[in-house]
Design brief:
binds iron/sulfur cluster, 214 residues, 12 helices
């Protein structure tokens, strides 16, 4: 039997949270959720937090941000991954939000995914943590890997994992899953040689495709 709720409840209590709660409280508008999520792609949490802080101190909404040129944005967000591309995308996103949505972030996954550089995971995170609408599960590399190792799903791609998890879990567990698994995946169930010997959910894990562990 798959013990999904037991695992989630254990991780809620033994949370390996690497993001300081003060930083999370600074991301206090849907626009900031969207932009900081874009900055976080392929970037360490500590770098994302510092870059978000620098950018939002200069411009906290799409109107102010659209007045910055892409070069200024790229300097503010450096050294996040792909900072030049992200700066151009952010500039474009601000223009679209102002022109097409009267300065408001669009509130649907489909509309969000039409913004430059916004994929399904970023759209899901914006819906969930910005609009507080639970319509999807943001699945990144950590959620995908851990769900498969635990034996909850048997999938090849994050999109398949999302659908499988939505069938497996009731939606009161969707909200937490991304944050819990990202922290857990950065600290314990790491990509190469996970720390199974100190893992709090070891007894519920099938360790699918785990060849080496510590
Ligand atoms: S037992 Fe190992 S593979 Fe399973 S969740 Fe824990 S760290 Fe990951």
């Amino acid at each position: 039997m798959i013990q999904t709720t037991k695992v989630i409840n254990i991780l809620r209590k033994t949370r390996f949270n690497t993001i300081p709660s003060a930083s999370l409280s600074e991301i206090n508008t849907t626009f900031k959720v969207l932009i900081s999520c874009i900055l976080s792609l392929r970037t360490k949490d500590s770098t994302t937090i510092a870059a978000s802080r620098r950018l939002f101190q200069k411009a906290s909404n799409p109107y102010k941000m659209s007045k910055l040129n892409a070069r200024t944005i790229s300097k503010l967000i450096y050294p996040v991954g792909f900072y030049r591309t992200k700066a151009n995308n952010i500039k474009d996103i601000c223009d679209v939000i102002i022109t097409d949505y009267k300065g408001n972030v669009p509130d649907s996954i489909n509309k969000l995914m039409k913004l430059k550089g916004v994929g399904r995971k970023t759209a899901c995170i914006t819906m969930m943590y910005g609009f507080k609408k639970i319509e999807c599960i943001p699945v990144d590399t950590h959620v995908h890997r851990i769900s498969n190792r635990l034996g909850w799903v048997k999938t090849k791609k994050p999109e398949e994992t999302e659908l499988a998890l939505m069938k497996l879990l009731t939606n009161d567990y969707w909200f937490d899953l991304n944050r819990l698994f990202v922290s857990f995946g950065q600290n314990i169930c790491v990509p190469i040689s996970p720390f199974c010997s100190v893992c709090p959910v070891n007894m519920y894990c099938k360790k699918v495709n785990v060849v080496h562990s510590r």
